[in-house]
Amino acid sequence: MNHVGILHHPKVAESQPLAAEIEAWLVSQQISTWQASSYDDVRLSELVAGSDLLVVLGGDGSLLRAARYASVCDIPIFGINLGRVGFLSEAQPDNWPEKLTRVLTGDFWTENRMMLSARIRRNGRILHTFSVLNDVVVGRGRQARVVRFQLHVDEDLITNYTADALIVATPTGSTAYSMAAGGPLLPPQLPNFVVVPVAPHLTFDRAIIFHEQAEIAITVHMDHRAYLTPDGTDGILLEDKDVVLITRAEESCKFARVESSGYFYRRLMGRLGYTR
């Protein structure tokens, strides 16, 4: 790898000093680098496109943001955890040199994680398109009022929901909001995604797992505000009878891993407080 990008988090105090340290270390290894904020959407598309690896400093949210750019360019991500959870990161601030050295010398494996494509259709027209690594949430805003949903899969009506929200999550997102809402945990190798209702009221209350080729359509019915929120970013205001279309995205997100493939289960049990 000859050209490595470094993304720091502008709101995490230790992020920029660590980014400078990593950049100096890479230069000493005769590797060209660039550095930018993970929130610099204007520059990132151009910067990421010419890179061999993306080093991301921050929590899982930073990695979700980086995934939008890295996946389009088919570039692996190496995460260094500066957040609270760190499910997606590969290293910590105290062990990154050893692990990053292994990645740079080719002693790593690439983990492919599926992504979802979400579109908003209104009156037959597509208004917005998003690619997400974690989840798409369709639900109410600040008002404590339920939303009614119709769930179609491959153009067949599956069920109607009355709930606060519906979560459509990838295996990556199954450890996030989906898990908090009672959804199943899916290992990252699976090509499935799951629909989980949030606080369903007198309606179907189970999560449903779908295969990778499924085409999901969620029709929203409400007389107040509802939003689509992709990967925890700012929500997009929906209107009554809007349809959210969700399929597997063409691109996937790649992570550079040096831990064994069972890291997911070890890390999950550790985060949940279950240790051997």
Summarize the SSE layout with pairings:
Elements: E1 3-8, H1 15-28, E2 32-37, H2 41-49, E3 53-58, H3 60-73, E4 77-81, H4 96-104, E5 109-122, E6 125-132, E7 135-140, E8 147-153, E9 156-163, E10 165-169, H5 177-180, E11 193-198, E12 208-210, E13 216-221, E14 226-230, E15 236-238, E16 243-257, H6 263-271
Parallel strand pairs: 1-2, 1-3, 3-4
Antiparallel strand pairs: 5-6, 5-16, 7-10, 7-14, 8-9, 8-13, 10-11, 11-12, 13-16, 14-15
Helix pairs in contact: 2-3
Strand content range: 35-45%
CATH class bucket of the largest domain: Mainly Beta
Spell out the CATH superfamily of the largest domain. Answer: Probable inorganic polyphosphate/atp-NAD kinase, domain 2
Provide a count of the helices: 6
Architecture of the largest domain, according to CATH? Sandwich
Shape: elongated
SSE sequence, one letter per element: EHEHEHEHEEEEEEHEEEEEEH
Determine the CATH topology of the largest domain. Tumour Suppressor Smad4
Q: How many β-strands, per DSSP? A: 16
Using the CA coordinates, give the radius of gyration: 20 Å
Biggest sheet strand line-up? 6-5-16-13-8-9
What's the number of structural domains?
2
Task: List unreliable stretches of 5+ residues.
Answer: none
Give the overall average pLDDT: 93
Helix and strand content put the structural class at alpha+beta
Q: Roughly what percent helix?
A: 10-25%
The major β-sheet equals: 6 strands, antiparallel
End-to-end separation: 37 Å
